[in-house]
Write a structure and sequence with these properties.
Elements lengths: L1 E2 L1 H11 L3 E5 L3 H14 L3 E6 L8 H14 L4 E8 L2 H9 L4 E4 L6 H17 L3 E6 L3 E2 L17 H11 L3 E4 L4 E2 L10 H11 L3 E3 L7 H10 L1 E6 L1 H17 L5 H23 L4
Parallel strand pairs: 1-4, 2-3, 2-11, 3-4, 4-5, 5-6, 6-8, 7-9, 8-10, 10-11
Helix pairs in contact: 2-10, 4-5, 6-7, 7-8, 9-10
């Protein structure tokens, strides 16, 4: 069933867990994630990132995501991830998305707040939820966003408090040591920063760059206040590994064989993540 961001975050707060937010730029990703969510009977977020527009247009994948969410046997929020354009966000909302992230993290505080307020007013007209970001997260060279050369700017708890109070967003993405893409070394996560931001803002916090984090770090982050974890890169990479193994091991492989193999690989990887996010035995 299709629900908004507020509903799935309410579940996360009540159960002291994190909702998995999986980028789904194609049908195979959607299938893998929703099949797991239905198996585990948990709410989930499927997301389309604006940066993926070049590989899968919103006009194409958006209606498919919404339809799949409506048909799902569990609550599914359809979310626009890292929306940097207000026009692009509104386009997603018109297609039926129930949540959007406005990403003004590279702007000045004043510009970010001004645009976030516009985004808040916009999503409220559609009954949708809104996420924003304070701080800049580094992207690795293997990120779908590409390497942007930033060292990363950790979120200041006091600024986060001010931002949350002035914008009334439903969730806040905070930078505390994760990166977009493949980790080349173990991330050093600032859990006390997350704890302090949660204490000051009292709203659900979001971990971006969630792929590749250890089980122990996921658990600690959730204990400190993370209620939504974005996950894509490592799930997608597992599909590639499985496809390569199939192609190297068999003759006469057709595309549908590759697609089905990719789905199973992504189910396995995203399923492991879900078990940690939702504390499933």
């Amino acid at each position: 069933m299709l629900v908004n961001l507020q509903e799935v975050l309410s579940y996360a707060e009540k159960n002291r867990c994190a909702i998995g937010a999986f980028n789904t730029p194609n049908l195979e990703c959607i299938m893998a994630v929703l099949q797991n969510a239905e198996t585990y009977r948990v709410p989930v977020i499927i997301a389309h990132a604006q940066v993926h527009e070049s590989i899968m247009p919103l006009d194409t994948i958006g209606p498919i995501m919404v339809l799949c969410a409506k048909r799902a046997k569990v609550p599914v929020c359809v979310h626009l991830d890292h929306g940097e354009s207000l026009d692009y966000i509104e386009k997603a909302l018109e297609l039926g998305f129930t949540s959007a992230m406005y990403d003004g993290s590279r702007l000045t505080f004043e510009e970010n707040m001004e645009n976030t307020l516009k985004a808040v007013r916009m999503v409220r007209k559609y009954g949708a939820g809104i996420e924003a970001e304070i701080g800049v997260m580094r992207s690795s060279s293997d990120s779908s966003e590409g390497s942007k050369g930033e060292k990363g700017i950790y979120t200041d708890p006091e600024i986060a408090k001010k931002f949350a109070e002035m914008t009334n967003v439903d969730a806040l993405a905070a930078s505390f040591g994760t990166v977009h893409g493949i980790y080349t070394e173990k991330p050093q996560l600032d859990f006390q920063r997350i704890k302090r931001i949660k204490e000051l803002t009292r709203i659900p916090l979001v971990m971006h760059g969630g792929s590749g984090v250890s089980r122990e770090d996921y658990i600690t982050a959730i204990e400190k206040g993370i209620r939504k974890i974005n996950y894509y890169t490592y799930m997608s990479r597992e599909a590639v590994f499985a496809a390569k193994e199939l192609l190297n091991g068999q003759e006469g492989v057709l595309y549908h064989d590759i697609a089905l193999t990719a789905v199973e690989a992504m189910k396995k990887d995203s399923g492991k993540a879900m078990k940690v996010f939702y504390n499933i035995p």
